[in-house]
Amino acid sequence: WSPDGSQIAYVQNDGIYLMKKDGTQKRKIVDHEFFDGQDSWRLHEIPQPRWSPDGEWLVYDRCPEINCLIAESAIFKVEISTGNIIKIIQAGINPDWR
Asked: Are the C-beta atoms of residues 60 and 47 closer than 8 Å to each other?
């Protein structure tokens, strides 16, 4: 849930999506294949996008290959209003805003 409770971020096999709390206005904000199509997630678990405290960004991790090492995974943030994606650091998983 977004900090103001108006939106939900969720992961599907082909990316990260946003929707209003009532389930309307779904839109893909990150285009990345998190799922290999054979019932296997790319990393050790389903990515968990996390909202920034101001609700302007999501932070998440992603792996370029199926079963990649932590060193191959990276942490990104995506701006909600524009969809602009910025790589924060290589070799990271499970990001959070603190």
From this structure: yes
CB-CB neighbours of 8 under 10 Å: 16
DSSP state of 71: G
Supply the pLDDT for residue 92.
82
As a whole number of angstroms, the distance between CA 36 and CA 75 comes to 20
Q: Tell me: pLDDT of 67 over 70.
A: no
pTM equals: 0.83
**Higher pLDDT residue, 2 or 73?**
2
Q: How far is CA 69 from the centre of its chain?
A: 18
Could you tell me which of 53, 48, 1 has the C-alpha nearest to residue 22?
1
**Would you state the structure tokens that stand for residue 19, as one six-digit string?**
């929707």
